[in-house]
Write a structure and sequence with these properties.
Elements (H helix, E strand, L loop, with lengths): L1 H21 L6 H5 L6 H4 L1 H29 L11 H4 L19
Helix pairs in contact: 1-4
Length: about 110
């Protein structure tokens, strides 16, 4: 289940990247170089902008909700309760640092 949800998350993220890059910016953006400048002829300029902005909103919302659901319910290893080193209370034996022997300056 975890793998399927992560794959869906990756597909949504790729679609979100594509939809954002297809939107017209003030400078034309990537949409003009990829042939996205003609996308307005299919729906009309106004409808295309509305479609892309709504698609961005829905994809971003589903991305966030799915990411939260994966992290809260499906994260692997969540059922394991391992103690940390601090909680176990074991003393670590680290030797004290030693200074190198001092040499007398030559006179």
């Amino acid at each position: 289940m975890y793998t399927a949800l992560v794959l869906i998350e990756i597909i949504i993220s790729v679609l979100l990247i594509i939809v954002i890059l297809l939107q017209n910016s003030k400078g034309g953006g990537l949409a003009a170089s990829l042939g996205g400048s003609n996308i307005g002829t299919v729906f009309g300029v106004r409808r295309t902008a509305d479609f892309l902005s709504k698609a961005t909103t829905y994809l971003a919302g589903s991305f966030i909700i799915l990411a939260l659901a994966i992290n809260l319910f499906f994260l692997p290893g969540k059922g394991k309760t391992a103690e940390s080193v601090i909680q176990s209370g074991q003393q670590s034996t680290v030797p004290a640092p030693q200074l190198p022997p001092q040499q007398q300056p030559a006179q």
